[in-house]
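Researcher: Sequence recovery benchmark, item below. Answer with residues only.
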């Protein structure tokens, strides 16, 4: 039996911070697209699509790393409800990191538009073109984006609570190596 680790693996930390920047950028790009009807909207959309696919690929890599490396335990004195909230919020974050790009891809497919990664790489449609499906997926993508944003804010608040109030090793385990 191996001894528990006090920090996340370097690759897990690198993926966490890279994806944090990418996901936050995506949320702001998405908000900009929704708020804009100008030509800027097309530029943002052309940035949003490949970034979403990159997030989808990276979250799969991240899940493989997560299940193949040891993670630090939560503090033993953490109240049970907080430990449960931490576990459930992580499940929700991973689910949203998987669902959002897949729903976006399906939404674009349902609109009958190609999912282009640059000027020459075209991804296959994952659903048939259908106006009602597009409308449903667009609404789902928007509401899940709100949920994602709120979940990220709660995750950030919990990390700061651990770092500034509890002053335990939870935040440090993702900030620094051994």
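Model:
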């Amino acid at each position: 039996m191996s001894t528990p680790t006090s920090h996340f693996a370097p690759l897990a930390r690198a993926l966490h911070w890279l994806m944090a920047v990418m996901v936050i950028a995506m949320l702001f790009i998405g908000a900009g697209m929704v708020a804009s009807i100008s030509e800027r909207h097309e530029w943002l959309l052309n940035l949003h699509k490949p970034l979403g696919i990159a997030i989808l690929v990276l979250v799969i890599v991240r899940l493989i790393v997560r299940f193949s490396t040891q993670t630090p335990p939560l503090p033993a004195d953490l109240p049970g409800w907080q430990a449960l909230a931490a576990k459930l919020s992580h499940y929700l974050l991973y689910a949203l990191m998987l669902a959002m790009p897949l729903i976006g891809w399906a939404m674009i497919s349902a609109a009958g538009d190609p999912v282009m990664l640059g000027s020459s790489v075209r991804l296959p449609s994952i659903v048939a073109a259908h106006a009602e499906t597009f409308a449903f997926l667009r609404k789902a993508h928007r509401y899940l984006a709100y949920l994602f944003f709120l979940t990220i804010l709660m995750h950030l608040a919990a990390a700061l609570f651990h770092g500034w109030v509890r002053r335990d090793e939870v935040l440090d385990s993702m900030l620094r190596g051994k």
